[in-house]
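Exercise 7. Predict the joint structure of the components listed below.
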Amino acid sequence: MELSAILLQVLNGLDKGSAYALIALGLTLIFGTLGVVNFAHGALFMIGAFCSVTLQRLLSISTVTLDETKTDFLGNPAKITTPYVETWFGPEVGSAIIDWSVPLAILFAIPIMLFIGFAMERGLIKHFYKRPHADQILVTFGLAIVLQEVIKYFFGANQIPAPAPDAFIGSFDFGELIGMGAGTLMYPYWRIVYFLFALIIIAAVFCFLQFTTFGMVVRAGMADRETVGLLGINIDKRFTIMFGIAAAVAGLAGVMYTPINPPNYTIGMDFLVISFVVVVVGGMGSLGGAVLAGFILGILESFASMRQVIELIPGINQVVIYLAAIVILLARPRGLLGRKGVMES
Amino acid sequence: MAAALEVRGVNKRFGGLQALDDVNLTVEEGRIHAIIGPNGAGKSTLLNCFVGRLKPDSGTVMFHGQSLLGILPYQVNQAGVSRVFQTPEIFGDLTVLENVMIPALAHRDGIFEMNAMKPLRRETDIRKEAVDVLEDIGLQDKLDMTASSMSRGDKRRLEMAMGLVQKPKLLLLDEPTAGMSRADTNNTIEVLKHISDTRSITMIIIEHDMHVVFTLADRISVLAQGHVIVEDEPENIKGNIKVQEAYLGGAH
Amino acid sequence: MFGLSRGDAVLWLFVLLLVLAAPILLNPFPESSALAQFNAGYPDLMQRFLIFGIFAVGFNILFGLTGYLSFGHAAFLGAGSYAGVWMLKLLTINVLPAIIISTLVAGLFSLLIGYISLRRSGIYFSILTLAFAQMSFALAASVLTPITGGETGLQTALNDPRIFDAANTTGNIPAPSLFGMTMGDSHQVAVGDWLWTFNVGYYLCAFVMMIAFYIAIRIFRSPFGMMLKAIKSNNERLSYTGINPRPYTLAAFVISGMYAGLAGGLMVAMDPLAGAERMQWTASGEVVLMTILGGVGTLIGPVFGAGLIKYFENIFSKINESLLQTWFSFLPDGVSDFVVTVIYPFVGKGWHLTLGLVFMLVVIFLPGGLVGGINGLYKRIFNKSNQAN
Ligand SMILES: Nc1ncnc2c1ncn2[C@@H]1O[C@H](COP(=O)(O)OP(=O)(O)OP(=O)(O)O)[C@@H](O)[C@H]1O
Ligand SMILES: [Mg+2]
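Solution:
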């Protein structure tokens, strides 16, 4: 197998791995801080993706004018649609704004996701801290279905494209960069963006937890909630904020994923199951484990989809994540970086 | 008299802490042997080494000539060693009667029995054994109560019943009267004394309540910082300077 | 009676009565009334009530008693289905061998998966079972196509060997039957405006379900069942009590796997077709939801949970806009339009929305599921009146 082919698979695995890692990170934050198994987390990813779609649609709202000088093939005056943003900001800036709607959706999505996160935690999750995990699973699963159906009601069941800005269309030639010859290792620009974006978010979350007082208290709370509560620190309020942050992380992962995979209402569920596997393989409650497992499984998955590998072991591309999960869990009882006694009974 | 339990040179470290330091202990058959010592002396850790919860770093633990090290907790129990834990360990969702029937069944049927089609109601013998023990211990009015809803003292008594119903050769009791009222403590003393007299069960009892210790114990070991500093008859322990130092030292 | 206590015998007889009379009870609305849409008394749906009831009752033996939450039980239902279709193809169109072999094959399969998965507990166990089931699903849909029929699924064909049946290579593909009684045969009785359908297949399901339910009661009330409850309550204590919990959990796992296989076998006995999607995680999730919705650890809860979810899936999904309009046509125009607009998102293609809301409402307001919740309410009212006395 050629080196360039192997490198390509690593690169291919990175963007899916990034998505897994971001979702798993949020899941672990919620589990670690609140002790809640959140089956609605995939739905948050999906809502993020639809923030992209919504913003793109909002920006494209247009006025229609008739241009008498041109006619369409029926002889009627041609309709000219001009998006409001172009009317407001001028055609150049306006079309650039529309072109950049996906990255702009980050700004649009953050307040929305934070709000949804706060509302979810205060309105529903809060009441389930002391309930059995089975109840948490059922209620958040019910919520996931509801969110999914609401999105389906407004956006339909089909995938809706939300493309990347024109500047990022096309591929970067890694082959030329590392001297293996032009065209041997082409990698789409947007996927590079996605990977870097994921790294930034992950780094931001870790720094936030590591270097702020807020993060320190939360980490202490993750380790031993009761003691921190005894110190008279209002841990609940911080945990609410953590839930909002986890929701925002999942949402942003969804926002930026739309150019890679046009979203439809089921995208959240598709990611949820694998993200759970990722969280557990990483070790329940371990943030680093979640990120590590996300990338490992993402890369493994893309390796297993190589033609040569499939010819060698038929069907491996379908099962590799699960196979890896089984092997890892049997070899390491608590996943890659898990702690003893978390969620074992 | 033959030794029921022979402990030789047991060491256990937790990181930087030497929890057990060359512990030697001989418990004679049919006797009640008390282990006392300040908090954190390593008493519970020692019992953990007997029942397969912890594996000592070195040393031997022989029970009637059979090593208790390297075997699983249920094998230790099947060999005739029952344990009552320091914090009550019961089946909280089950009734008091069921809590006692489970160890009784384990004693009769062994580690596994595929009796999925046999009605529990028909286990009249097991039920009677359980009820008898619960009567001895004074819980006969609470047979159908859910175990988790009992008081702490009652939970301890329930756990003692769970141990006694197995007619163990060796019963390990970790602070059996902690959290009990004076009356319940006296009742517990009575029960243990009665059982020791009639059934000649060997017992190891860890206690902070000196009244209990001196009423029951035939022999006492004092553990401090993981080491047995004195082992003697009860009357000799009372005035022992080393023991007082150990307790005072432990209070700092 | 048959080793059941009086209370359990009453429960069993009550369920028997419900099941026998279901073709009548589930068709309460006259055929010509607008509400006939809500009738569930047709064979296809009633069979599914019972089949999923069996699946959930078995699942509850594992999850309800031991607390081990498997996310992969659909794999056993799927394995049972495949085994069943193969028996119908190879041996005979008589469903009896198919049902028996389905159960056994699923039992063996669950022994293998359970043996490995039970090396871990808690969520780690759940993910192991999920992983095994997803692998089974993926392999059944792709690499194992010669055995499973791949994405089209496995079905009976005219030129199947059927070595125990008389040669038959002309005419129609034979329909599954039990000693000559065809599963699809029905006897219809019309009383006034009501139409009742008594179906052979349904009563076979009923017979099997009542046996399965009986066995479940016996397991719940046995020393074995008590050990399983003890595992859920305090697994570690059990081993200090002289019990090895592992074989108990494995036995429970295999028993519940066999129930799943039995359900799969009955499914193909009713409709000789098996597809890979039966093994998918959504199917495993469904049985979890049925059990929790009905009441984890209760005897009858899972049956209700299964019935409720299947009822929603079939009845709510069929309500369309024009049907809604006819129902509310008695209202003034504007009002009826408004009502239809409000209700429409919750039915038809949107029935999932209602299902999601029901899940949430049940968990929020009835912890312990329908049966647990009703018991709780009953006790609360009962205790209050006691205090008042
Ligand atoms: N599993 C463990 N890991 C680390 N340290 C432990 C562990 N178990 C016990 N220790 C430590 O070992 C020491 C002895 O503990 P142990 O519970 O045996 O004391 P004890 O004599 O039973 O005290 P008490 O009277 O309070 O019950 C303590 O300092 C305790 O913190
Ligand atoms: Mg102790």
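Discussion. Residues B 43-44, 86, 174 surround magnesium ion (ligand 2) (CB under 6 Å).
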